[in-house]
Amino acid sequence: MFEIRIHSRGGQGGVTAARLLATAALHDGKYATACPFYGAERRGAPVVSFVRIDDHPIKVYSQIRDPDLVVVLDASVMETVDVLHGLKKGGRVLINSAHTSEFAGYTTFNVDLTGIALKEKLVVAGSPILNTPVLGALAKMGIVTVDSAKTAIRGMFTDERNVKAAEAAFQEMSA
Amino acid sequence: MKKIATGNKAIAEAVKQALPEVVAAYPITPQTEIVETIADYVTSGQMKSRYIPVESEHSAMAACIGASITGVRTFTATSAHGLLYMHEMTNWAAGARLPIVMANVNRSLGPGWNIWAEHTDAMQERDTGWLQVYVSTVQEAYDTTLMAFRIAEHNDVLLPVMVNLDGFSLSHIMQPLDTVEPGDFIPKIHLPHAIDTKNPTGYGGLTGPDQHFRFRWEIERSMRDSEKVIAATEKDFAKRFGRSYGPTENYRCEDADVILIAMGTLGKEAEVAIDILRNEGIRAGSMRLRWFRPFPKLELAGKEVIVIDRDYSFGYGGIVAHEIMAKCHCDVFSVIAGLGGQEVTYDDIAEFVRKRRIGDEFWFGVTNHV
C-alpha cells in the first residue's frame, strides 16, 4: 500500500487534490481512498489530507502514520508544521516551490505549481489553483499515469486550463 | 459505473435511485452533505421528489410520518443530537408501522462538544422498533441504502430502517463506488394501512389496556419476520449486482478460536488486525456486526470473544458486549474504543486481542481505570 500525506492551508484545495489523486488511481485500475483530517478547519490554517493507493481493497480508516510520500502545496506551512513527521526512511517529498530544497535522507522534488497556475491564469478569488497542476507533478513521479490524471481532472473541471497546468507541471518538474 | 465518492454522497446517490416521493430533513454535521446533495438533485430536477426543509429534526420525522401514512416512500437523514431530538417521533414512526428509511451518521453526543464518530446516538434508539444496520464502506453504504427501502416496505416488515455510518471516518472518506441500475429491485410501495387522502376520516387513536400489547407484539413479530426479508433481499441483491451481505461479515472465522466483534469502520479495519494476528499464529477471526436490530443469531460457542464498543451505557457497560453476553450466553473481553472519533489503528485492535482478558472491561487510552 502506498500512502500519501498532503499538507496545505485551508482553502488551497488539498482535499480536492486528494480526491483527484484517488480518482486518477481508480482510473489506473487501482484501489484508492482519500480523506481529509477533519478538525476545526479555518481558511488559511495548516491542514492535512491523506490518500492511500493499493492493488487490493483498502480496509484501513485510521490516519496515515508513516507515509511513503509527503506533498507540500504551501511551503510556508513548514514554518510551523513538521511535514517530514513519520515519513518512511528513503521516502519522497514533493514541494510546491520556485526554489530548490533538499532534505537529508529523502528524495525531494521541487516544482513551482504557483508559478504554473499564475501563468495559466488559474486563479480563483485571488488564489492560484494548485490541486490540478499537482496531479501533473505526481504523474511525473509515477504515482498515477498522466492519462488517468487528465481524465480525473476533466471529470471534475470543465476548464481545460486545469489540464494544461497539469501538463506544464509534468514537463517542468525534473524527476 | 465506478467513481470516487464519500459515504454521504453514496447514500444520496442511492436515495436518488430509490426515488422517495418525500424527503424532509434538517442539516447537521457530519450528515449535512447527504441532505444538501439530495436538495440539489431535487432543485436541479434530477430527482422528482418533494423536499421539505423543516425547522428541526423533530419536524423532519413528523413530516416523514405525515407523508408516509399516505402511502408514499420517504427518506430523511440525521446525526447525534438531531437523532435524539427526533426520539419521540422515531417511536411514533415504528408504532404507526411506517417504512421510513433514515441515514444516521453516527456521532458523539455533547457535551463536551464533539462531532466525530460514536455509536451511542443510535444505541439510544435501540428500543424504538426501528431496524438498525451499520455499514463499513462507501460501497456498503450505497448498497445497504437501496436494500433498506425494499426491506422497510416489505409487507412482512413495515417498520422503519436506520442505516448507520460512522461520522467522518465513513461519511467523509472517499472510496470507490460502483453504482447500479436498480430497475425493479425495489418494488412499488404498497402501504396496506395508508390513509385515503380523497376521503379524509378521523378515528380516535387510543388503544386501551386490552389492545395495546397486541400492537406491541405485532411490532416484535414483524421484527422477527424481517430476518427472512433481509436475507431474501440481500440474496437477490447479490444475484442481481454481485455483492453479497449478511447479518455479519465474517472474516477468517471458520477455524478461529478467538472472535473479534465490532461494528462500522472499526469492524472493517479489524480485518487487517486479524491478518497480523494470524501471522503470529493466533487463530483469530473478525465478525463484523452489520444488523443490530433485529439482532442476529451468532455462532460463538466455544470461542473466546472480544467485543469493541464504540458506545457505552453508564453504570452498565459496552452496549454491544452486553447484548452479545446476554443473547449468546457467553463471557467476553469488552473493549471500549473509538468514542468521539478516538483514533484506533489496526495495531491497537491486534493488541486488544493479544491482551484479551475474558470477563473484563478495558477502556482504550484510559490508564487509571480499574
Provide an overview of this structure.
The complex is a heterodimer of chains A (175) and B (370). With 175 residues, chain A is α/β, with parallel strands linked by helices. In chain A, a hairpin with a 2-residue loop joins strand 7 and strand 8. In chain A, the strands form two sheets. A six-stranded mixed beta sheet of chain A has the order 2-3-1-4-5-6, with helices on one face. Chain A has a two-stranded antiparallel sheet with strand order 7-8. In chain A, helix 3 runs parallel beside helix 5. Chain A has one domain: Pyruvate-ferredoxin Oxidoreductase, domain 3 (3-Layer(aba) Sandwich). Chain A contains five helices and eight strands; from the N terminus they run βαβββββαββααα. Helix content of chain A is 30%, strand content 23%. Chain B has 370 residues and is of the alpha/beta class. Chain B folds into two domains: 2-241, 3-Layer(aba) Sandwich (Rossmann fold), CATH 3.40.50.970; 248-363, Rossmann fold, CATH 3.40.50.920. Chain B has helices at residues 7-18, 32-43, 57-68, 80-85, 87-95, 120-123, 138-153, 212-241, 264-279, 319-328, 346-354, and strands spanning 2-6, 22-25, 50-53, 74-78, 101-106, 131-134, 161-166, 174-178, 248-251, 258-262, 284-289, 291-293, 304-309, 332-336, 361-363. Chain B has a seven-stranded mixed beta sheet with strand order 3-2-4-5-7-6-12, sandwiched between helices. In chain B, strand 10 (258-262), helix 9 (264-279) and strand 11 form a beta-alpha-beta unit. In chain B, helix 3 (57-68) packs parallel to helix 5 (87-95). The radius of gyration of chain B is 20 Å and the shape is globular. Classes of the chains: A alpha/beta (175), B alpha/beta (370). The A-B interface holds A 18-19, 22-23, 26, 31-36, 38, 58-63, 65, 155 and B 2-4, 30, 115-116, 166, 168-170, 172-176, 265-266, 268-269, 271-272, 343-346.
